[in-house]
Amino acid sequence: MFRIPIIAVLCILCLAYAASAQQRTATDTVAVRMALNGSELMPSITLPIVEVVDKLPKRLRKQRQRWTRLRNAVYVTYPYARSASRVLKDVGQELEAIPNKKQRKAYLANKEKLLKAEFGDKLENLSVYQGKVLMKLIHRETGENCYEIIKELKGGFNARVYQTVAFFFGGNLKSEFNSQDDRDIEMIVQEIELYSRFY
């Protein structure tokens, strides 16, 4: 009887296993682009761009937080400033057509009631900081600060009362938009207007 050495059996088994491991299946291939390098075709893989950044220094983190807070406030309040500009223009035109003081007062009271119904809850939910930004944006859109607008529409006494209340909350109805001091606000407004063109 012929006996096969055990080593030969192991070698045959290993070769059979290696041969079966080399067989290709559909899941073994990866499609890649090819690039011509001289006369050779070489596989070309584009890796995604990864930005490696270190933790921001404390000074820059505070600056980014300030910018983000301002940007959020402008995004929230800018539509209200635009609406205020349109409403003031409409109210001004209507008041010019009403000669009687009593009728003007009634018109303003009715308009105020309608505006409170439309915007009251939304404006009351603004933070003090957002209110300050809104006052600057209203001046930017209308050319008048909030104190002047209230004085013109509701009288000087009411304007002083509102100014006192604003003062206790850290605000100032006489604050005005300054293109130099408030250039961050202007940049954010330009960004909003740019995006609104596409939508």
Describe this structure in words.
The model has no long low-confidence stretch (mean pLDDT 79). The longest helix has 40 residues, at 58-97. Strand 1 (33-37) and strand 2 (40-44) form a beta hairpin. Strands 1-2 form a two-stranded antiparallel sheet. The chain has one domain (58-198). The protein is mainly α and 199 residues long. The chain has helices at 6-21, 58-97, 101-124, 128-142, 146-154, 156-168, 183-198; strands spanning 33-37, 40-44. The protein has seven helices and two strands. The termini are far apart.
The N- to C-terminal Cα distance equals: 89 Å
Biggest sheet details? 2 strands, antiparallel
Average per-residue pLDDT, rounded, comes to: 79
Order of helices and strands: HEEHHHHHH
> What fraction, in percent, of the residue positions are helical?
55-70%
Number of structural domains: 1
Instruction: Kindly report the spatial arrangement of strands forming the biggest sheet.
Output: 1-2
Low-confidence stretches: none
Amount of beta strand: 5-15%
Q: What is the total tally of β strands?
A: 2
* Alpha-beta classification: mainly alpha
Calculate Rg over CA atoms. 35 Å
| Gross morphology | elongated
Which helices and strands, and how do they pair?
Blueprint lengths: L5 H16 L11 E5 L2 E5 L13 H40 L3 H24 L3 H15 L3 H9 L1 H13 L14 H16 L1
Antiparallel strand pairs: 1-2
Helix pairs in contact: 2-4, 2-7, 5-6
Key traits:
single chain; 199 residues; mainly alpha; 7 helices; 2 strands
